[in-house]
Amino acid sequence: MSVQSNALSGNGAATDFGAIVIGAGFGGLRMLYELRERGISAKAIEAGSDVGGTWYWNRYPGARTDSEAWIYCFPFSKELLDEWNWTERFPAQPEVLNYLRHFADKFDLRKDIQFNSRVQSATYNASAKKWTVTAGHGEVFTCTYLIAASGVLSLPVDPPFEGLDSFECEWYLTARWPKAEINFADKRVGIIGTGATGVQVIPVVAEKAKHLTVFQRTPNYVIPANNRPLDDAERKAYKERYDAIWEKAQNHVFGFAMDPANRTRPDVTPEEQQEVFEAVWRIGGFQFLFETFDDLLVDEESNEAAAEFLRNKIREIVKDPVTAELLCPKGYPLGGKRPPLGHSYYEAFNRDNVELVDVSTNPIRRITPKGVRTETDEYEFDMLIFATGFDAGTGALRTMDIHGRAGQSLTDRWASGPETYLGITVDGFPNLFMISGPQTPFANIPIVIENAVQWIGRAITGIEDGDLDYVEPTPVAVDSWVKEVDDLVDATLLRRGEKVHSWFLGANVPGKPHVVLFYFGGANNYFNRIHGVADGGYEGFVGSAR
């Protein structure tokens, strides 16, 4: 058992723990609980003033889950599942944050979290088999296990426009939205960005602003959420079938409690195809991707059939034909960019106070003191909102100064893109673990976290029990995993998202390597794979089996 103690490092007095966890969002909280259950002393370092991670920082108007409530939660505690009552099919940010606060309080996790502090550096000492971690206020910790739960989407991309400092009015970055309420009434507002965040913000601002101008570079395939309140009968029903819900999620390609369609588009007539799309469209949610036809992400004709169905829906909803056509995605497949769920998104463009500006042909040149200047026009605003996305997958990890064996820098190691084994470990960095790190599945995140935490906990117990010396993958295993992740994307249509700046491929951040950041071979297959590696004695790891 690892116990907390005081130790002396080269930086002076340091507090020693079995594990340091970076972050106190979904992944960090679940890992902290797991470590406690396994008898490992731990401290979580959290930049925010409270738990929540993504749901602490992203408090912008309209923020909510794209996963249904009953599958966007911790699956391991039956007591927690039974006592928490979700109010909506797709819960809003305050409710998800309250859920995570409740989880932290229920299991008394706050005492092991240091808030308002960022990890600045972490260095591995091979002779001591310890990590030395320095936090934002100069605190120094040592630990045997360093566990990064820093999040898939936690490092925002700053607005990439010249002249922002000259803007004379209010401006906000969605990923760092202030806690105080922002008033949009009687204001001319400009929103830049129509990814998943922009799609959520735009309808809310449209209802309140005097005038809203939306600057769109790439139109998105927005699937209706068809959100609704949940009543007691529905809550009772999903609680009674939670075992079946989690079994489905564990065996689903994207970690949802959905059934495969068990058909492909060529299996049905064109008329039946439209009936299938229409029926699932009315249900709403990601069922449109996963319960219509099983070949949407691998067959170009099937994908185009779904894409054209969505385009026709946009043309039906949006009254102005010119605006409707600008909102229709073309030239890339459904799924090539992360498809968001919409809450009256297209309907917002029917409002008299909403204007759409296409900056793919008329790009933004700079921010001016009064507003935004494109190639040909200038727009004046009282407020600007930037929904400019995230440096996904690797961004947060690369900003920390992490050094492994012989002083090797993780930032340098990943200069050409992330290289991991199983998306959890990196060669040259012993006992460094990542939760929902790069090259893990892009899928419903709680079930991905659950499987990763179980795997990491099991590996740590193996070390503590003397069955393993440490956990570090071989370079051969890492190379093989990187190739496998790359090959899996080539078996789909997702590579074509590169030309429309897909963050799946790192293409949304200038200067970032365009490489595959996530495992697209099926979350279910990934779960079987990682647990099979553990069952088989940790094949692919060096110095691990005694």
If you had to describe this structure to a student in words, what would you say it looks like?
It is a single chain. The chain is of the alpha/beta class and 546 residues long. The protein has helices spanning 26-37, 54-57, 78-83, 93-106, 196-208, 232-240, 242-250, 270-283, 287-290, 300-317, 321-327, 345-348, 395-399, 410-413, 445-464, 475-490, 523-535; strands at 5-9, 12-22, 42-45, 113-114, 119-125, 130-135, 140-148, 170-173, 188-192, 211-216, 223-224, 341-342, 354-358, 364-367, 371-374, 378-380, 383-386, 401-403, 432-434. It folds into two domains: 5-155 and 392-469, FAD/NAD(P)-binding domain (3-Layer(bba) Sandwich); 164-386, no CATH class. The strands form four sheets. Strands 1, 2, 3, 4, 5, 6, 7, 18 and 19 form a nine-stranded mixed beta sheet that branches. The protein has a five-stranded parallel beta sheet with strand order 8-17-9-10-13, covered by helices on one side.
Keywords:
17 helices, 32% helix, disordered N terminus, 19 strands, globular
The top level CATH class name of the largest domain: Alpha Beta
The largest pleated sheet is described as: 9 strands, mixed
Oligomeric assembly: single chain
**What share of residues is helical?**
25-40%
Low-confidence stretches: 1-12
The CATH topology of the largest domain is: FAD/NAD(P)-binding domain
Write down the overall mean pLDDT. Answer: 95
Distance between the termini: 18 Å
Secondary structure tally: strands? 19
Number of helices: 17
CATH superfamily placement of the largest domain: FAD/NAD(P)-binding domain
Strand content: 15-25%
Number of domains: 2
CATH architecture field of the largest domain:
3-Layer(bba) Sandwich
**Secondary-structure content class:** alpha/beta
The coarse silhouette is globular
Radius of gyration: 24 Å
